[in-house]
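Agenda item 2: heme C complex prediction
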Amino acid sequence: MKTVAIASLCALAFVSSVQADGDAAAGAKVFAQCSACHTVGAGAQNSVGPVLNGVVGRAAGSYPGYRYSSAMRKSGLTWDEATLLRYLKAPDQVLPGTKMAFPGISSDADLHNVIAYLKQQTQE
Ligand code: HEC
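Presented output:
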């Protein structure tokens, strides 16, 4: 009985640590799905989508020189982790009218990992 309780506590601890901070290296692989439209790192340029350097914590629709949809400009959202989680899971449900043509990521682990990766992209 005791062993079962301890084992499930460990499992819980593991799950919550994955959720609290994802694995950025694994997130880099998830970002392959984004890189058709988004760039990060030194010399990143707006393309189909805006540059995602520094996106965690940024006001939605605010990267210089990128033409956002009016839905994005008027959203009033800030890309904190909780908002990114919701948006990246179902972009057009969270922000109807967004021009990000991406169906969303269903795996919570992938979502946390790609956000951990984005948090590391702090270049201007
Ligand atoms: C098919 C192209 C495409 C793909 C793939 C794509 N995006 Fe986007 N993304 C866009 C476009 C276009 C916008 C601008 C949306 C608007 O203005 O409504 C955008 C906007 C965003 C924003 C808001 C940025 C800001 O400055 O407000 C975030 C965050 C974002 N994408 C993250 C991602 C992530 C992470 C992935 C991969 C999991 C991804 N996107 C995949 C095209 C794409």
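Discussion summary: DSSP finds six helices and no strands in the chain.
Owner for follow-up: CH.
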